[in-house]
Q: What sequence folds into this?
């Protein structure tokens, strides 16, 4: 069993995952991908027909709580902003994602 | 005459001082002596701070220390944990104390809120003395992926401490705290506990809240104690566990007094011995099978069990964990805190991208959905076994600690080292790793992993405590 991944695929995945990578990284990532896929492909040989998937183990469903304001769990504006690198007038400053024509 | 008398007094004094400075208190001893006024917080902190001053530079255990810890401790004298110094893995958000998850992307992150479990610890009078090194984002089983450098194993510094909670297990082993907290996804408490010769308890998934812990694999992440003895783990778990309205996967169950499982005999218990004939374990099985006889001497029955091969756990864990990592870190934008996404380390990049790939259209069925179905097969297998056995026991790790540098070029290092733990973690089961052998040449330990049905931490504590007290492998009981 051997899985082949192309650098084009790596570039595409990096774009989907919004991770900037260098050309050097493309190659090492390709190797790591193939190594990992070779291991996990063994699952294909398992017979899972009629088996329900387990997405979580607690069995809890629709866990809700009362919608009550709890000041102990609230940030002040200053606390919310204190770790941000760029703020302006009490706001977070985010990178521009739409360029002007 | 006088000079002989003086010499005797001086020697006596020196002996006292020596005792004071090298006490290596367990949590239980520290609490007992503080209660009886045989020990002061000043002396306790002097003892721990000396260990830190002597070793932290070499071992690289703490990323951040709280220099106000002793002052805080002095306000906790009348609380259950009386101000004892506890180390926290650096993925617990601690209010006003830097939290990096060993990732330089969070180098300057000082949380404005506290994780539920560390809040519970503080409410009980535990004091956070510092934050310990780990694999970056908890992605690994060695601490070698930490962007602040690897931690060394205090038992033998040529070796790795394991991970991802390797800083916390090293802190306990090196007496740089009284006890510590770690988190486990599939081995991250128990494997480093085994490699460092300490006790690591992974509670049932949902027993301790994940709120405020840097999210890694949300369907298996479990915070828990790392301690010198089993009893210490029971004491701590009493305070850490419980339902959390802020965390929907915590169990709304009463938390029993886990210390009631201490000093309880195990006569008549049925113990299943897992993976005795597993290929690749031959070397340690020779040692381990001998230790399993201890349970028979204590009146329990031991049977070798025919269980599902654990190897599929590697694949399921890899797929589920990478998928959940890609989702959790997909939300990370570096706008509200931290640096931007270009600062992710190699391991984080690999994991986020692999998860993105295996969850993408056309591959999700082949990988993710199949993995979740095989996960069901393991759960069924454990259900079958727990109808017959009270607990299941196996080695924690396929071997002793690996040498420093062992992870280089090994994309699957952690998954292979956690072979014997993944299936039970994916099933949500509680487990404990305790020292069960020491190699005198290397000074390295082997761990024994004991698992039980969900919410039966009391059983793993009971069986582990009985073993610990019947043997000489625990270095604090000799």
A:
């Amino acid at each position: 069993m051997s899985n082949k991944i192309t650098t084009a695929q790596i570039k595409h995945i990096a774009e989907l995952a919004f991770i900037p990578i260098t050309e050097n990284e493309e190659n090492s990532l390709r190797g790591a991908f193939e190594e990992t896929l070779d291991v996990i492909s063994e699952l294909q040989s398992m017979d899972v027909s009629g088996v329900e998937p387990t997405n979580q183990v607690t069995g809890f469903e629709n866990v809700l709580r009362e919608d009550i304001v709890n000041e102990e769990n609230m940030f002040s504006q200053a606390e919310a902003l204190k770790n941000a690198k760029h703020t302006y007038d009490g706001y977070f400053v985010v990178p521009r994602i739409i360029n002007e024509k | 005459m006088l000079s002989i008398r003086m010499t005797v007094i001086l020697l006596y004094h020196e002996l006292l001082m020596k005792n004071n400075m090298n006490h290596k208190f367990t949590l239980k001893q520290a609490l007992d002596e503080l209660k009886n006024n045989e020990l002061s917080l000043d002396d306790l902190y002097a003892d721990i701070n000396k260990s830190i001053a002597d070793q932290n530079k070499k071992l690289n255990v703490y990323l951040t220390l709280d220099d106000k810890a002793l002052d805080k401790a002095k306000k906790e004298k009348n609380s259950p944990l009386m101000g004892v110094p506890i180390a926290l893995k650096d993925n617990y958000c601690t209010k006003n104390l830097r939290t990096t998850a060993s990732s330089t992307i969070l180098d300057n992150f000082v949380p404005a809120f506290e994780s539920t479990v560390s809040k519970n610890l503080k409410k009980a009078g535990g004091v956070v003395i510092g934050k310990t090194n780990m694999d970056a984002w908890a992605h690994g089983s060695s601490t070698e992926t930490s962007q602040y450098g690897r931690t060394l194993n205090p038992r033998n510094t040529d070796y790795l401490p394991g991970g991802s909670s390797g800083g916390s297990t090293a802190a306990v082993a090196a007496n740089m705290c009284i006890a510590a907290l770690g988190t486990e996804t599939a081995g991250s408490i128990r494997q480093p506990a085994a490699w460092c010769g300490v006790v690591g308890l992974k509670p049932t998934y949902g027993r301790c809240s994940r709120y405020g812990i840097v999210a890694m694999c949300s369907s298996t992440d479990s915070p828990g104690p790392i301690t010198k003895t089993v009893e210490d783990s029971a004491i701590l778990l009493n305070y850490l566990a419980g339902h959390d309205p802020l965390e929907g996967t915590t169990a709304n169950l009463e938390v029993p007094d886990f210390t009631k499982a201490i000093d309880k005999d195990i006569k008549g218990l049925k113990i299943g011995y897992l993976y005795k004939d597993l290929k690749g374990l031959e070397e340690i099985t020779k040692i381990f099978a001998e230790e399993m006889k201890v349970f028979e001497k204590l009146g329990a029955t031991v049977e070798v069990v025919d269980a599902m091969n654990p190897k599929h756990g590697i694949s399921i864990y890899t797929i589920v964990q990478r998928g959940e990592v890609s989702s959790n870190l997909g939300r990370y934008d570096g706008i509200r805190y931290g640096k931007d996404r270009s600062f992710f380390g190699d391991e984080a990049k690999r994991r986020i991208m692999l998860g993105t790939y295996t969850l993408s259209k056309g591959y999700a069925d082949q990988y993710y959905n199949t993995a979740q179905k095989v996960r069901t097969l393991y759960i069924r297998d454990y259900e079958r076994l727990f109808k017959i056995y009270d607990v299941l026991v196996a080695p924690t790790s396929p071997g002793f600690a690996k040498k420093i540098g062992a992870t280089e070029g090994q994309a699957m290092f952690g998954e292979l080292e956690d072979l014997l733990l993944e299936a039970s973690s994916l099933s949500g089961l509680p487990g404990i790793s305790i020292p069960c052998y020491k190699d005198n040449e290397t000074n390295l330990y082997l761990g024994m992993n004991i698992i039980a049905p969900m919410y039966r931490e009391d059983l793993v504590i009971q069986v582990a405590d009985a073993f610990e007290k019947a043997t000489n492998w625990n270095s604090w009981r000799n």
